[in-house]
Amino acid sequence: MQDQLNSDLKTAMKARDKTSLDVIRGLKSQLTNKKIELGHDLSDQEASEVVLRELKQQKESLAEFEKGGREDLAEDQKAKIAITEKYAPKQMSAEEVKKVVEQTAKDLNASAPSDFGKVMGAVMPKLKGQADGNVVKQTVKELLG
């Protein structure tokens, strides 16, 4: 991932693409900080977690900008999200998530809304880094509700 970021950074510099530069520099900074924190080179899984965390923060910012009526900032944030998504691991579709949730609920004999925590606790480790937590949460609620 570092090699891809470095290559894209050079391309963005040559193209004078300020948005891409900001996003790529931010990702490189986050990855470097995580590397220092852990004291070793990052595995692909660890690097993916950093990118997904950054993507989640960007999406939360977008929601706040839209809620606040700041369309100028929202458009800029959408562009940043599109760039960050290029580095994020492929996410499972809602249908794939539903299959995993249904199988897990079946394995746990969970059928009531009170089993929500039990199912979420079993599903999230299986889908870590592969699916958005909000999609998983919504799927579990629909299944048990």
TrEMBL record:
Family matches, as Gene3D superfamilies: 1.10.10.410, Uncharacterised protein YqeY/AIM41 PF09424, N-terminal domain
SUPFAM superfamilies xref list: GatB/YqeY motif
Source domain of life: Bacteria
InterPro entries tied to this protein: Asn/Gln_tRNA_amidoTrase-B-like (IPR003789), GatB_Yqey_C_2 (IPR023168), YqeY/Aim41 (IPR019004), YqeY/Aim41_N (IPR042184)
GO molecular function: carbon-nitrogen ligase activity, with glutamine as amido-N-donor
Pfam families: YqeY (PF09424)
The protein's name in its UniProt record: GatB YqeY domain-containing protein
Organism: Lentilactobacillus senioris DSM 24302 = JCM 17472
Lineage: Bacteria, Bacillati, Bacillota, Bacilli, Lactobacillales
